[in-house]
Design a protein that fits this description.
Elements: H1 19-30, H2 62-67, H3 73-83, E1 97-107, E2 111-116, E3 127-132, E4 136-146, E5 150-161, E6 164-176, E7 183-186, E8 190-191, E9 200-209, E10 215-226
Parallel strand pairs: 3-10
Antiparallel strand pairs: 1-2, 1-4, 4-7, 4-8, 5-6, 5-9, 9-10
């Protein structure tokens, strides 16, 4: 499958409380050579996904992030404005939680189809959607972030046919702060293969992790490609 340009999600909150800058600063102080690999070249990201060797800084609760800059009135007011809608999450819980509400498929052939999540175990093998060969489509996720900022949320989508891996795509969604309204994010555009051998039922696994390597969803699903 060929990747294309994705549709941007809502505003990213990578700089919401300067947590990213703090992590980068502490990471540099603790491991000044962490961006150097054996051959002396700088590490690079693989299609937006950080490579092995990245060490995130210590995790702080939302309450700690707000209070640590309380002497800076302008920064404190900015944080409260951005995070003021999540007062109920200022309970000191450290671990962020990403709750996925639905997975959708967008295609010119039929518009948009959404499936609520989680999918029942006894329905995990059912075909979620059917596409024609040579179709261009995008997966769409609706999710909420709870308790703390989730940093560097990435996805990996792996596809198999008859037990053989035929495709894998990776990408970065971004960094998101807790908020009342769910986020909606559309993944990069894909194109289904064409030809007699391309037709049939495929199994897939969609996995989401943050930069602390926490897995927030590991979804198994199936789809079918038919003759155009």
């Amino acid at each position: 499958m060929e990747g294309g340009k994705g549709v941007e999600a809502g505003p990213s909150t990578a700089g919401v409380v300067s947590e990213t800058q703090e992590r980068q600063k502490k990471m540099t102080e603790k491991a000044p050579a962490e961006t150097v690999i054996d051959d002396g070249e700088e590490e690079e990201e693989d299609n937006g996904v950080p490579v092995a060797g990245f060490v995130p800084g210590p995790l702080l609760s939302l309450k700690e992030q707000i209070e640590k800059d309380k002497d800076d009135d302008s920064l404190r007011r900015w944080k409260e404005k951005l995070l003021g809608c999540v007062e109920g999450d200022l309970n000191g819980q450290m671990e962020p939680e990403v709750k996925f509400h639905s997975i959708g498929i967008i295609c010119n052939d039929f518009g948009e189809i959404n499936t609520p999540l989680p999918v029942d175990d006894n329905q995990s093998d059912r075909v979620l959607f059917t596409l024609k060969e040579g179709s261009r489509y995008q997966l769409k996720l609706t999710f909420s972030v709870l308790h703390n900022i989730v940093s560097g949320l990435t996805y990996t989508n792996t596809v198999w046919k008859k037990g053989l891996q035929v495709d894998q795509s990776k990408g970065m969604l971004g960094t998101f702060a807790p908020q009342q309204e769910p986020y909606k994010h559309t993944l990069e555009e894909e194109t289904t293969p064409s030809g007699v051998l391309a037709r049939g039922i495929y199994s897939a696994k969609l996995k989401f992790e943050d930069d602390d390597r926490r897995c927030h969803m590991d979804l198994k699903y199936s789809f079918e490609i038919k003759k155009s």
